[in-house]
Amino acid sequence: MVVKVSETSVAAQPMNVGIARQRLLTPERVDNTDVLLDRLTLAAGASIRFEPAAKSLSWLHVLAGEAKLETLYYRDRLTDAHSALLPPGFAATISTDKGASLLYAEIPDAARLDKGFSATTPLFTVINWTREPVFKSKSDRRMRIALVSPELCQTAAIKIQMVIYPPGSTASSYHHEGAASFMYILSGRGEAWANGQRLPIQPGDVVYFRARERHHLKAADDSELRFLVFYAPGEFKTIWADPSKASAWISTERDINGYPTEQDERERRHLWQGI
Fold first, then answer.
1. 78-84 average pLDDT score
2. Which domains are assigned to the chain?
């Protein structure tokens, strides 16, 4: 059965000085979930250190404010356009001068979801979603942007995408075989349908669909709907209630603003360096 959690109904708990945590997705809320999801709020001047265990992966996305991400070999400013995948044992510190909020996901046992996990080390990956290739629906104006994928991050334990539904957009009903999925609503309003049950959705909502649970979404007629969608594991099969209405996605080879993408720049840089 579909599970919906609103962050407005989840109490914030203190973690460290200047840091509060809202536990949005937990085993108590969803039996056998492979992914834990928190919302972290950092006060001005606060910092937090992450170090995924040997079998786990972590991922974070800035929701509001600005922060600084520091690792042994990397240091850069993060805004609400950025997310980062942290491989096992990869230590990283997030700090903020003026305050920030983060969405933080952890997969405690990534090897359970990715058969090649022990043989291939996932990549530390920082993504600016506004600079990545946009995939557009062939049949309407919906858009998707990959944040975590086997191609980007060298892991099949999880797949994460930014999804944008223009006002009034909807998808046909479908379900996933081989993976559970859930979404975090970033902005806009709409409704989710799961096995005939209607759920209004708004910013801060988490909606969790178990594998084989039929569902679809619709943006409100007067509101663009923007959300993050997570699939665990990242390899699965999508089954459409009406195969003739299956979504097909085509790369625009441009970012959300119509410019050449960060991916293009990486490829050109590799060519120039002879890699």
1. 96
2. 3-128 (2.60.120.10), 135-252 (2.60.120.10)
